[in-house]
Amino acid sequence: MRILAFEDSYDIEALLIAGNIDTSQFTIEQKWNSEDALSAIKDFAPDVLLLDHFMPPMKGLDVLKAVILEVEKKEMIRPKMIIGISSAGFANRAMLNAGADLAIAKFNLANLELWSE
């Protein structure tokens, strides 16, 4: 599974490892800002896209909306799973309302069943 995370504060792989997830079976790439987010997503072609809401220079919600637009224009293949990973509940709800498949507090990320699929 190819995982691309846009998260500017916490190491996503470290969060998964701390939650007892064996990350050796994944290819994980983390971007610490959202500069050139669409290019990074197109280039990496993730199965799972993790988007933090509060991320400079472009919020995760804006990245999500841009991804959906690119998919609609057939300029990008949609990741199988797009997950909002904010610590703020309102931000995760906004991600779900905008088209994310799931939303979860980033510190609970390891609790998702998808890591064992």
Give the secondary structure arrangement, pairings included.
Elements: E1 2-6, H1 12-18, E2 27-31, H2 37-44, E3 48-51, H3 60-72, E4 81-84, H4 89-98, E5 102-103
Parallel strand pairs: 1-2, 1-3, 3-4, 4-5
Question: What does it look like?
Answer:
With 117 residues, this protein is an alpha/beta fold. It has four helices and five strands; from the N terminus they run βαβαβαβαβ. The protein has helices spanning 12-18, 37-44, 60-72, 89-98; strands at residues 2-6, 27-31, 48-51, 81-84, 102-103. α1 links the parallel β1 and β2. The chain starts with a strand and ends in a 14-residue tail after the last strand.
